[in-house]
Amino acid sequence: MTKSGWQFQGDQGVFKLKHPEKNSYLYFPLVNEAGMMSAITPNLHGGITSGHNTFLMEPVSVEDLHNSKASRNFWLHIEGYGAWSVSGNSAKQNAAQFVADDEYTEMEAGFLWHKLTRQNAELGIKAETTSFVPVKNDKVELMKVKITNTGNASLALTPTAAIPLYGRSADDLRDHRHVTSLLHRIFVADYGMEVQPALSFDERGHRINKVTYSVLGAEGSGTAPVGMFPISEEFVGEGGALDWPEAVVRNLEPLATAGAELEGYEAIGALRFASVQLLPGQSVSYVVAMVISDDRIVPAKYAAEYLSEAQFDALLQENEAYWREKLDTIKFKSGDAEQDLWMKWVTLQPILRRLYGNSFLPYHDYGRGGRGWRDLWQDCLALMVMEPNEVRNLLVNNYAGVRIDGSNATIIGSKPGEFIADRNNIPRVWMDHGAWPLLTTMLYVHQSGDWEILLQPQTYFRDIFVKRCAERDLSWSADNGNKLTTQDGKVYEGTILEHILLQNIVPFFHVGEHNNIKLEGADWNDGLDLAPNRGESVAFTAFYASNLLELAELLTYLKQNAGIETIELAEEMAILLDSLSESVDYESIEAKLALLNQYYDAVTPVVSGKKLKLDIEKVANDLRTKAEWAMAHLRKNEWISNKEGYEWFNGYYNDDAERVEGDFPQGVRMTLTGQVFSIMGGVATDEQVGKISKAVDRYLKDEKIGYRLNSNFGGIQQNLGRAFGFAFGHKENGAMFSHMTVMYANALYKRGFVKEGYEVMDSIYRLSTDFELSRMYPGVPEYINEKGRGMYTFLTGSASWLLLTELTEVYGVKGSYGHLHLEPKLVKAQFDSEGKASVETLFADRMLHIVYRNTELLDYGQYRISSITINDQPVSFEAVGIGGLLHRSVLDVLPKEGTQRIEVVLEQK
Prior knowledge:
Blueprint: E1 7-9, E2 14-18, E3 28-31, E4 37-40, E5 48-51, E6 54-55, H1 64-67, E7 73-78, E8 82-85, H2 91-97, E9 104-110, E10 113-120, E11 125-132, E12 139-149, E13 155-165, H3 177-181, E14 185-189, E15 192-195, E16 199-202, E17 205-208, E18 212-219, E19 227-231, H4 232-236, H5 246-249, E20 261-263, E21 267-272, E22 276-278, E23 283-293, H6 299-306, H7 309-327, E24 330-333, H8 337-356, H9 373-386, H10 391-398, E25 411-412, E26 419-420, H11 436-448, E27 457-459, E28 465-466, E29 471-472, E30 493-495, H12 496-509, E31 536-537, H13 538-562, E32 566-570, H14 589-603, E33 611-615, H15 616-637, E34 639-641, E35 647-649, E36 652-653, E37 662-664, E38 667-669, H16 673-680, H17 686-699, E39 701-702, E40 706-707, E41 736-737, H18 738-750, H19 754-769, H20 771-774, E42 783-784, E43 790-791, H21 798-810, E44 813-816, E45 819-822, E46 836-843, E47 846-853, E48 863-870, E49 873-875, E50 878-880, E51 883-886, H22 888-892, E52 899-908
Parallel strand pairs: 47-52
Antiparallel strand pairs: 1-2, 2-9, 3-4, 4-5, 5-6, 7-8, 7-13, 9-10, 10-11, 11-12, 12-23, 13-21, 13-22, 14-15, 14-20, 15-18, 16-17, 18-23, 19-21, 24-46, 25-26, 27-30, 28-29, 31-36, 32-33, 34-35, 37-38, 39-40, 41-42, 42-43, 44-45, 45-51, 46-47, 48-49, 48-52, 50-51
Helix pairs in contact: 8-9, 8-21, 9-10, 9-11, 9-21, 12-13, 13-15, 13-16, 16-18, 18-19, 18-21
């Protein structure tokens, strides 16, 4: 990086940041597959949890990171000086921070570990604190503190680890905070202490609790602490605080030893270690483990596995190897080595989203864990190229959340395929939900060639809500389970293809006053949630229209290439395929809604269970007719121009049935979402794409924060959505919302507007890595606010889209029903000085290293593929535009072990 801020070290994505504590809101994730989810800051603040009801340290929002005094702390009482914190988290050090830089600090991090170095030259002391969550089945976070005497005189030190133990549900943070401390049962053992609350007080009721929270520690050699301060108020002392605790400041004797049992107080894992005399140049290390367990533990067992320097170092090495192997499934190498390393952090983000969901990191202080429906499908986009072995099962399981009315479950369980009736019994439908599964499933089909997944049977979700949550079926009971049944009480199953068809055909008929699909509870932009009656989403009408066209082409492919003549569908679905019997006038809103209501009545409360065999070509023609009608409708009715001569697509109608984009007294109103799907799905003609790009540059592009999600609508829009209550330039109201910005780039690339797409992608990279403004670690944020700060870091669906766009569009590595389609859209600046750019990725169960050679340094539009070799052997390919198609048979003969090198020569067109 040329800018100030963090700097990459080496070629594995490790980065360093000097004086990290001088930046607010920074945090770093530490996590494992067992369910330990931590966040750690430059002063070792942050949360530790395994779920909404099981926080080891208290839940924190970003403001708590610098306002709260609770953190992972490790104290030294230095003879002749007093209390000193290795994290700088002491009243004395905090006060000195703004007066003089008498301590040097540095943060270093990699996949997935965090190291803080703090050095005080006057005291002659250096502390290196390394933290990570081991790749084990235990929910454990480990911390090693290495103390070195860097001075000329010996140091007499008394060390104390101090980890506040919250030990309960996030709900108890304000609701009965003190009362729930009365439930605490504290058990002191040789290596530390456990807290096991007697009951859990949360929305599930007052239950006997088994979950235990522990802080254990030992010297690097494995020697246990000499005693403990288990009760927080005794550790801090009367009038004391966590950043100036009496037990440390006065170097008090420990109050408890192994065997002590206490109850009814706020707990702290304050472990006192034996005093040590450190000679110049000497070091001593301590290891601390923070544990969440399902029941009481055997501390000695954990001590043997985790509490020595040798064990810590071995586990850290194992951890680094684990994440390196996982992230090496996709590697980019371009003319910009810094950006390639940044992409490694973007590659990590979809995995973090899978593990954390949308909660448990300081910015994500909402929700109760888990993911939403949209997340299930978008996260799969990246998993397709990173963890492909699990994707088929995930996809099939996810379809169990679809309702027979084309809507879907909104509460996702923790297990694959687990869906729950709405937690608060609030009927709500996001109208975009049905659009995403096809996109994700088709990516899988193209990558794998496994079109048979479409014929896999799956159940349907059922709860009290019917007719897209417009009505409640009072005859339904949760005792009946959550699966759709037939008239004879059997669980009904339809193919995955049937589920997809329903999700895309039902919305086609579910239209508002302008014959666009109703907005309902909201679409992709959850902030557009105040137009449930007359609101319409033109943007997603375009998405659904392109889906219908893609489905028509899919059915045609299945007939021509798989010999499938008929498909089996629930007999009630014949109503929706109107052209097979009596065509409906699509211009007539009343006729469309009447047909839809006829279908709803046919599938409520149960289905017959009978199937119809339908001619696949006739179904394809029905879908194509619907798609073409919708596209023509949008081009005719939603293409707008303003008085400055710019043209683009309107994206929405509000709850007063008014068009929301165009010229208004408050100024020009425009949304990026309204443009993305019309471009991506082919609704916009090539000429229109060019005009849209100019309009976006005029009204949404901002040099400081990138491409805004919308222009300034000039005030609260109670007839459209809560988003406009946010200050302009923040979150869904006019920030650079990465997800839609990346999708805009993806759409431009898809349509061949490569220069424009590159500018969008490059702006996201530049904004995210401009540390002076973004103040974030490497990666892509959910959004960039008015000041240029990266917000809601690490957990964002935009990372999946960015990774996918880079791989399939920029580097042009994509599947086509299992065949490998290479069509690079790299601009001249993305090749190195020798004219090379490459990507390593999994495809057809093989690791491929695809190298593009552009020795003449031609720009996009000037080159085409002239030859392809695999492991230095020429292979034949089918020319497709400027790209080439390698048939699956060519790849299937390659060994699955090792990496196969594919070299692609680009030459002048």
